[in-house]
Amino acid sequence: MEITRISTTSKRRGFTLIELSVVIVVLALVVSIVVPNVMTMIAGRRSKNFLSDVRTFSVRARNQAVETGQTMALDANGSEHGLTISADTTTNSTSTNSTANAVTSTDPLANLALPNGTTLQTFKIGTQDSNEGEWKIHFYPDGRSDGGGFEIVQGGLTYSWIVAQNGSNKLLPGSYPDQTSEVWPAGEYEKRL
User: Fold this and answer.
1) Quick one: DSSP state of residue 145?
2) pLDDT at 187
3) Neighbours of 44 (CB within 10 A)
4) Of 107, 92, 96, residue with least CA distance to 67
5) In this structure, are residues 58 and 92 in contact, taking their beta carbons and an 8 Å threshold?
6) What count of other Cβ atoms lies within 10 Å of the Cβ of residue 65?
7) Which of 26, 65, 130, 184 could link 139 by a cystine bridge, Cβ 3.0 to 4.6 Å?
8) Is residue 95 a contact partner of residue 69, using CB atoms and an 8 Å limit?
9) What own/partner pairs with CB < 8 Å and gap ≥ 24 does 91-95 have?
């Protein structure tokens, strides 16, 4: 009779509980370091994108007014915490453009939400002060606008978004500049550079 010996050093298959625990702890540490940095990076990207989106949004409002032959309103929607483009039914506009593309709804055509940590302040219509509830810039079918703008505050930095009366817009670093010096009475003064 033959006796077979069972080896006490049999081949192990699988992981021990200690090995699995160590791997889980290491993964948890890596995730706790990486996730906050990724979230901060995403928030920073959204804030940066908002600055460019504001400029694009006003160009969209102007283009919509020109294409449809209707006056468009760009306003700060306090309850939505962002900007809204809508057809303005309170302003009468005449245009040589076809009205086949006319917008008949007063519902917002587009919304631009504010990212977290971004606020709008120092609202202007033309050169006059306004508040968030009353602020609205009109874009007319001829491409012109009321002019105005506001300040955007992000992470302690202030930017000024300005719409000129010719419908163009610009984004400047810093507080909203004094626009009264930009107005020149026709024929009374000569603007010198």
Assistant:
1) B
2) 52
3) 14
4) 96
5) no
6) 30
7) 65
8) yes
9) 91/138, 91/140, 93/69, 93/140, 93/141, 94/141, 95/69, 95/70, 95/141, 95/142
How far apart CA 128 and CA 179 sit, in angstroms, is 9
* CA dist., res. 87 & res. 103, Å (int): 7
CB burial of residue 96 (10 Å; 0-12, 13-18, 19+): exposed
Residue 110 to residue 38: CA distance in whole angstroms: 29
Whether residue 183 is predicted with pLDDT greater than 80 in this model: the reply is no
| Token pair recorded at residue 34 | 């990486």
Please report, to the nearest 10 degrees, the dihedral formed by the alpha carbons of residues 9, 10, 14, 16 taken in order: -30
Instruction: Please state the separation of Cα 138 from the chain's center in Å.
Output: 19
Q: Which of 37-46, 121-130, 149-158 has the lowest mean pLDDT?
A: 37-46
Average pLDDT over residues 148-170: 88
pTM for the predicted model, two decimal places: 0.64
When mean pLDDT is compared over 34-48, 94-108, 136-150, 167-181, the highest value belongs to: 136-150
What is residue 55's predicted lDDT score, i.e. its pLDDT? 86
| Residues β-bridged to residue 5 | none
Mean pLDDT of 5-19: 72
pLDDT, position 9: 57
Can you tell me the mean pLDDT for 161-179? 87
Measured between alpha carbons, how far is residue 176 from residues 37, 118, 120, 193 in Å?
32, 16, 12, 21
What is the three-class DSSP state of 61? Answer: helix
